[in-house]
Amino acid sequence: MKKINLYTDGGCRGNGQETENLGAIGGVLIYPEKNIRKEYKQAYENTTNNKMELLAVIEGLKMLKEPCEVHIFSDSAYVVNAYLQNWIVSWKLKNWTRGKAGELKNKELWIELDGLVNIHIVTFHKVKGHADNPNNNQADLLVNQAMDAHRK
Predict the structure, then answer these.
(1) pLDDT averaged over every residue in the chain
(2) Which residue in 25, 58, 116, 119 has the fewest CB atoms around it within 10 Å?
(3) C-alpha count within 13 angstroms, C-beta hemisphere, residue 96
(4) What is the tens place of the pLDDT at every residue in 46-59?
(5) Active site positions, annotated
(6) Is the overall model pTM greater than 0.90, yes or no?
């Protein structure tokens, strides 16, 4: 089984605004055994930071053509803690809701992400954003490049 490292980031300029905002995703897929590295980025209008963080992981996992052992590195507590703290298990047991706490935001993206996670052997790792991890910093750079290019 191939071992993959996936570094992802998402961001949104104007997060919290209903319209007139711009978000983007960025990711770095690394196949250490073959020394192969792939990068991706994409901008999206009228979105949120949380959607971009989720979509960054989703798009990276979609690039894999077969089941792999995947280590996902993200600075998003929103994404990482859903798995490390088993929020996802609780949401699934409550039919993709937060139970008495109400609706689950970004439900469709969580369902898509969980479907992709279940294809692979996935381990989530929380990294500090804008710190000393060069691959996480590259994912952040890709996010900003995608937003800058979209604005031109």
Answers:
(1) 94
(2) 119
(3) 11
(4) 999 999 999 999 99
(5) 9-10, 53, 75, 130, 140
(6) yes
Q: Where exactly are the structural domains of the chain?
A: 3-151
Top CATH class, 3-151: alpha beta
Residue 101, CA distances (Å) to 74, 91, 98, 125 in order: 26, 11, 5, 27
Residue appearing with tokens 């469709």: 108
For the record, the structure tokens of 88 come out as 């996802």
Beta bridge partners of residue 40, listed in sequence order = 27
Q: Say what the pLDDT of residue 111 is.
A: 97
Residue located via tokens 């898509």: 112
Residue 114 burial class via C-beta count within 10 angstroms: exposed 0-12, middle 13-18, buried 19 and up: middle
Q: Which two tokens stand for residue 118?
A: 């279940």
